[in-house]
Design a protein that fits this description.
The protein is an alpha/beta fold. It has helices at about 5-15, 35-40, 55-65, 80-90, 105-115, 130-135, 150-170, 170-175; strands spanning about 25-30, 30, 45-50, 70-75, 95, 120-125, 145, 180-185, 190. The protein contains 8 helices and 9 strands. Helix 4 packs parallel to helix 5.
């Protein structure tokens, strides 16, 4: 069999791809049998943007998410950095603290990210009362978690968020109301208001 330098380089890059990959599932006898999604896309399956003004808490969250098998797009410690990163990199998900000790709150950041980029948001905060919750709901988050939360709760919230988000945008046209105006008069009789 001929030596293929391109195949050799590809296999070498697979080994560097990410620690989540078990290389034996992709390379057998020196041949690539499959390419992981992460390798094809150039990133892990779920890239999470962490928006947290406390660097130590942000790094702890990064470690926790990596242990749960999620990729990290970035850590943003200011609202401006979070919005800039979302604009340039479009992460799969934003995990946002509400109190960022800045002129803009996490709610402002979440609203901007959702309205401009359709990036789903999960709030992870130690603040909870009805007023804050009602304000947070204006940003249309997929979840609202209270710190400290258990790993299982965080993983379930992220997986549910990604599933719902992908389902919604895949089936958006099915969820929109129909444009025709039909009145059902009885089980077998209907009246079309826009008949031409």
């Amino acid at each position: 069999e001929k030596f293929n330098p391109y195949m050799e380089a590809l296999i070498e890059n697979l080994y560097k791809c990410t620690d989540r990959i078990k290389i034996d599932e992709f390379v057998k006898n020196g041949k690539i049998i499959a390419l992981p999604v992460q390798f094809i896309r150039g990133k892990t399956i779920d890239d999470v943007l962490i928006v947290e003004d406390e660097p130590i808490l942000a790094m702890a969250m990064e470690v926790k998410l990596k242990k749960l098998g999620f990729g990290i797009s970035a850590i943003a410690t200011t609202p401006e950095n979070a919005i800039l990163h979302a604009n340039n990199h479009h992460p799969d998900l934003a995990l946002i603290d509400i109190n960022l000790n800045a002129s803009k709150s996490g709610i402002d950041v979440a609203s901007h990210i959702w309205k401009n980029f359709n990036i789903p948001v999960i709030f992870l905060t130690s603040y909870y009362n009805d007023k804050i919750l009602n304000q947070a709901m204006q940003a249309e988050p997929y979840a609202y978690l209270i710190k400290p939360c258990r790993n299982e709760e965080l993983k379930a919230a992220i997986n549910t968020t990604m599933h719902k988000h992908q389902f919604f945008f895949k089936n958006k046209n099915l969820l929109e109301p129909t444009k025709n105006k039909i009145i059902y008069l009885s089980k077998d009789i209907k009246f079309d208001l826009i008949s031409e």
